[in-house]
Specification:
Length: about 80
């Protein structure tokens, strides 16, 4: 089951659970669309995998399977 991380690992922007603008790789590295497309050209900077749109978990299942609370952030990735 996907962790549904709450933020972009690069710019630390908050990411809405139902946003179509969230990209992930097969290891669930998570990025906002701006970082994933403009900075990384849809290639994960961590593993080299493809960044694709993160699926949206149905609202009715969020209570039973909540998103991850801990943030993952790499300050060295942050845009200058």
């Amino acid at each position: 089951m996907l962790e549904l991380r709450p933020n972009c690992e690069c710019c630390d922007a908050d990411l809405a659970l139902d946003s179509p603008d969230v990209l992930i790789c097969t290891f669930e590295c998570t990025f906002c669309r701006v970082c994933g497309e403009d900075r990384f050209d849809r290639v994960c900077p961590n593993c080299g995998g493809e960044l694709v749109r993160r699926p949206v978990r149905p609202a009715g299942l969020l209570a039973k399977h909540p998103p991850r609370a801990e943030r993952v952030f790499n300050p060295e990735c942050r845009p200058a």
